[in-house]
Amino acid sequence: MxxxxxxxxxxKQLLSNLSDHGTQHxxxxxxxxxxxxxxxxxAIQKLGTSFMAIHEAVNSQQQEIDTLxxxxxxxxxVAGQLRARQQEIGMHVNAAVTGLQFQDMTSQLIGRxxxxxxxxxxxxxxxxxxxTGISDGSAEEILSAxxxxxxxxxxxxxxxxxxxWKAVCQTHMESGDVxxx
Length: 181
Description:
Helices cover 83% and strands 3% of the residues. The protein has helices at residues 3-71, 76-100, 102-131, 139-164; strands spanning 168-170, 178-180.
């Protein structure tokens, strides 16, 4: 076997290995992202339920305090302070629940990462497919095949970047619209 043929075979094998290893790592990344998304949703649901339970307990406590205040001789200043504390706690609970809505933006980011991973897998598939076009020919033929692979990869990368160039935003929060990037 001539040196050029061996070179062509080695380049083909290296590109194929690159594609295989990259695809394997990307599959693991996708699995990790899916698990992260599931954990995030579960955590946000539990926190939301807990905050709402705290809010209901504070409201119930305030009703009992109001009943006591109505039946006892309590200075107006003390009664006002108790009511103010209840309103302050309510505001903090509402702010915490509103903050939990950032989960939507995080989910959007995770979705974009998954799209990027999918796009990268397609790029690696292009490397693998393109490597089959590398023959055991001359260095010029190998260079031509690698140039062709590079052109395909550039086009795929540009399409992916164009599709993902969008802001992550949350438009249903009580505090107003929020946009990242």
